[in-house]
Amino acid sequence: MQNIRQAATEAFCRLGLKQKHTGYEELTDFSDVPCPVRSLPPQWYHTVQVRRIRSLRARSNSDPLQGKNLGQALQWQRKGLPFGNASSYLNLEKLGEGSYATVYKGISRINGQLVALKVISMKAEEGVPFTAIREGSLLKGLKHANIVLLHDIIQTRESLTFVFEYVHTDLAQYMSQHPGGLLPYNIRLFMFQLLRGLAYIHHQHILHRDLKPQNLLISYIGELKLADFGLARAKSIPSQTYSSEVVTLWYRPPDVLLGATDYSTDLDIWGAGCIFIEMLQGYPAFSGVSDIFEQLEKIWLVIGTPAEDSWPGVSTLPNYKTEWLTLHESQPFGNVWDRLGRSMGAEDLAEKMLKGCPRERISAEDALLHKFFSTLPCQLHQLPDVRSIFTVPGLSLKPEIHDLYISHRKGSKSDAHHRLW
Length: 421
What we know:
Blueprint: H1 2-14, E1 17-19, E2 25-27, H2 50-56, H3 70-73, E3 89-97, E4 102-108, E5 114-121, H4 130-140, E6 150-155, E7 159-165, E8 169-170, H5 171-177, H6 184-203, E9 206-207, E10 216-218, E11 224-226, E12 233-234, H7 254-257, H8 266-281, H9 292-303, H10 333-336, H11 346-353, H12 364-367, H13 401-410, H14 413-416
Antiparallel strand pairs: 1-2, 2-6, 3-4, 4-5, 5-7, 6-7, 8-10, 9-12, 10-11
């Protein structure tokens, strides 16, 4: 047990933590780590930017001032508060709870920005969860407009807290607020940002391994950010064997469902393709409910049952059981998902992402150049990593059809002020 604690301490020292004589650990000044938080460009801190928000939109739950006077609201701020200290952040409300972490909405007393506090309780006999060490170590090195930003890490004997930029909703909530499928233009913006984030981490040889709408955060202006890197892994070269128990069932590719463990970036591409369909149609692409074999059956109904001639090596995968296979012919995606035909290039892009054979799936980098995105400004391809696509003039999220309908039906301007979009 002492060896485990020592390993955890060493791991967090590599994250920029130092051991204090009290037994607690705190984050060292970010000036001694690459790309310090305080040197990041202003667009990273889009979650509060009080004056900017108040000039762009009416009061909402993303505004920490809640309509109060600026001077009154910032009385709780203190100059000189350090990073890595729990007293530097105020807890506002609980946002959600998972199997090993609880997430709170908070506010920084250092600079007045809203933050998300991911609190991981540490059991005395187990120490720091390995998934937390992995998430912290990976996110510390990722600086991109479409990756959630890790501001700070706080560790005490009882808990480990990751301080993230606050992004007030996720794609799952956004889609539930706009049922029936999203506006094609907005889907194009969301998909471009998703693929842009994936291209970045794949270039860093990192696999997310848990793509789903709940892990794609959406800011109030439409910025999409990959989050929850607890299952992410650094992909070694040459490839090595990984676990097949990754990715939520509905977004898990058929090769992994069949037991493949030598996957690469194609794992994330399948998940992104499923999310693409879900945004268009308004419901999951492959929604199996009981086990992996039902999930596979739903996939075979669309892409066809695989065989050695179309997918070399498929018969050697652990879960490939001929007696459990029902033969299906592949179908045109447009016949299965009718909204694919309403956007130029959408069906072709979906078919390139949702290939059964993983080696045939399009890469995130190539997908960004697909004709589906040809109507977007060409400047998007020249943006620095840390620049949001919404810094390009004239680019903005459009109102969803559902919002326009509700606004027209109620005929109330005041109600629109409380909408998130």
